[in-house]
Every structure is written in C-alpha cells, then in structure tokens.
Amino acid sequence: MNDGTESKFLSYLDESRRSFKNGDYINSLIQLEKSFDFANQKKEKEMIKLRILLRELVGDYVRALEDIKNYDISDKVVECVLLAWTGEYKRIQDYILSAIDGSNFNEIDLSKFMGLAGRRIDLLINNIDLEKTPPYDPIDEIENPECVVEHLLALNKCDLLRDIENKIIDSYPKKMVIDKLERYNSLDTLPKEHFDLFKDLTYVNGWLSIDEAWTLFYFSQQVPSKQKIVEIGAWKGKSTISLARGSLSGSKPKVHSIDIHEGLEGISGPTLNTFKDNLKSRYLLNNVEIHKDYSTVVGRSWEEGPIGLLFIDASHEYKDVLNDYLSWKEHLGEESFVLFHDANMKGPNKLIREKILNDSDMEPIGYMDSLFVFKKNTNSRDPSRDDFWDIFLSDREYAYEHWIDSQNNKIRKDIEKIFKDLESDL
User: What is the distance between the terminal CA atoms of the chain, rounded to a whole angstrom?
Assistant: First the structure.
C-alpha cells in the first residue's frame, strides 16, 4: 500500500469510526464501503467482519448474511443471530443438532443458540438426549439462564426443571419465570399433539414459534362456521398455515389474510409469491382469502360477517397496533378470540396493558411465548388477575428490551475492537 492509498484508506476509516462513535451507523457503513477501494488485501477479512457487524446494527441482515456466505466468515454465533432476525430458524436448529452431535461448539455457544431459537426447537424433541448435552450446572455460568428454563418447559422436561429450580431460587427474575409460566398461564395446559403442524411449518420462514403456531391452531378450531378468521400480518404464511389447519380441523370458517406483502427493509423483499407458494404446496389456497392491502382499509369495507378470531401481527409501532385493533374491534363476534403476537414488544405490550386489560368486555386467557390471548364477552373474567397480567407483561417487555440492549452493546464493543486493530496494524 503506497502513501497516497494508505492516506485515503485511513481517512475513510477514521471518518467511519468517528461516525460510529457519534451513533451515525449508516454513515459509518457508507464510509467503510469507500475505504474498501484502498484497503490492504490482508485486512479484507477483518473489514468484512466489521461490515457484517455494522450491517447487523443497522438492520441490514440479508446483506450481512451474504457477506458471511461470500467471504466464508466462520462465526456461527453471529450467523445464528442474523438467521433469527430473518426468521430462518430451521438453519439454527440444524446448527444446534450439529453442535450436539459433533461437539463442535462450547456450552456458552450452545446456550446462545437455544436462546435464539427460543421455543422454536421442537425438532430436538426426537433428536436430543438432555442428559448428554453440556451440563447446566451451575446454572449461573450460563449466559442466559432464562432461555434454559424456557427450553426445558418447551420440551416438557419438568423433572429437569425441578432439578435446577433450587439453583436459581435466589434470583427473583429467574424464579418468577418458572412461577408465572407454571402457576398462572392456562395456555401451558393446551394439548401438545402438534407434530404434524410442526412438519408443515418446518420450511416456512418466520418468527412464529411452534407453540405459538399450535395456539393459533387450537383457537381457530373453536371458531364457529358462521364466523370468520382474520389475520393482520402474514409475512410468508407461517401463521396463515396454522390458522387454516386449525379451521379445517374444526368448523371450517374462512381465513382472511391481510398483508401489504412489501417485505421489510434489510430482511426480505416482496413476500406475496412466496406466501402463495407456501399455501399452494400445502393445498390451503382455497381455504384462505388473500387481501393485499392495509388492515385499516379492509376493515372499513368489511361485509363478511362477524369475526370469531382476530390475530394481530403486523407493524409493532403502538399507533399501528392500536389502529389495527380499533379497525376490527367492531367486527368481533360474541365470545370471539383476539390474539396479539410479540406482546413483549413495546407497541403491542402498551396497547394490551393500557387499553385491553381495562376493557371489561375482554377476558385475558393466557400467554404463550410472545402470544397473548383474549376472549370477548365472557362471564368468567377475574379482575383480581389484572394486576398479575400487568406486572407479567411489564416484566416480559423489560426482559426483551434488556436482551436487545445487551446484544447491541456487544456488537458495539466488537466493532470498536476491530477499528482499533485495523488502525494499530497500519
């Protein structure tokens, strides 16, 4: 590298680092891209790692994954994080199985994968012997003990859960997870015969866990034939398939799926063709009416009769979730169900806690993973549990936000280290 080239490289790299320090991650990425034209080839791999982390920080997950593939970057933890953001949990599950079968990853990595996959690891039920996996003792050494608790709950390993309970009893948040999920959540008693549905969903990308999918299936079974099922936000069809399968095993009400299908920046392009293909390959197109539009628009002109189940999983901004709910509330039939996905995120969480829990018409039924279920017009509402649900949801939002902050802090530290290494080597 001659002096002029090195000077330009350092100039762009310095500008990228200064922008990063000022919180302007987009400009940091732009300046880093410019520095590539003047970079020493020996530093290319480190710069690619830097670009991957910056792209993750700004939410450009697809290009970050392309970098990992194109430049053979061997960092399974970073790759699994990106796969989780893009909804490709099947590949994460494959990594978990590889980790267990080949002992390719250490205990901390394995716990991270379990945390990322959450309850989306039912594939392991028939493939994993928990006694042979890396030990969970002492549990405080595991990076995310809560994910181990949920992992055991998901696999219905209550005996092992009891075995570790004494080790986390002194930590209120961890003990609280067990207490609340076991003592208060009626949805934990749902039947678990959902392997056919799991098989149906294995190759459909999305952020719906198998237990959430089964919950949609279960409640859509309860909808009378004269009512309709409406979902707001379909992505590539994971929830749609769950609702349609439940409908067909019940009274066969029509499923109306509403989504603009324009994709999400940094995650996916338009999704309509993939959505239709996923339904078609499972012979479900005739059971689903597709509305490529905004839910508020479809809601204003709705003339299809009362709704027996409303599933809301579109934009999670508070005003958008509120508008989705208000646009459809008037169409809800008697004893209908309303389900909110990602109820641990700010928008849905705020709507549930501030509006719906205070609505005497709506009875909280339970919580599964991140899915909250209400039932309209029941005589069994217990107001004494409202405080419990308010605290519970507050805790879930805090845990989610804390996890996001910790992930971003780790990314920022890794980025800062690469900047220092690049500059010190020149």
Answer: 10
Contact yes or no for 228/308 (Cβ under 8 A): yes
When pLDDT is averaged across residues 277-285 and rounded to a whole number, the result is: 94
Bridge partners, residue 311, by sequence: 231, 339
Shared-domain flag, residues 70 and 113: no
Give the count of alpha carbons within 13 A of 161, CB side only.
Answer: 20
* Residue 381: φ, ψ to 5°: -60, 135
Model pLDDT for residues 121-177, shown as the tens digit of each residue: 333 333 334 343 333 333 333 344 455 554 444 444 444 444 444 444 444 444 544
Q: Is residue 69 part of a domain?
A: yes
> Average pLDDT of 265-282?
88
Average pLDDT over the chain, rounded to an integer: 78
Question: In the chain, helix, strand, coil percent, each to 5?
Answer: 60, 10, 30
Q: Virtual CA dihedral for 181, 184, 185, 189, nearest 10 degrees?
A: 100
Indicate if 80 and 94 belong to the same structural domain.
no
Closest CA to 351 of 301, 315, 403, 304: 315
CA 95 to each of CA 105, 112, 118, 201, 301: distance values in angstroms, whole numbers, following the listed order: 9, 11, 14, 18, 46
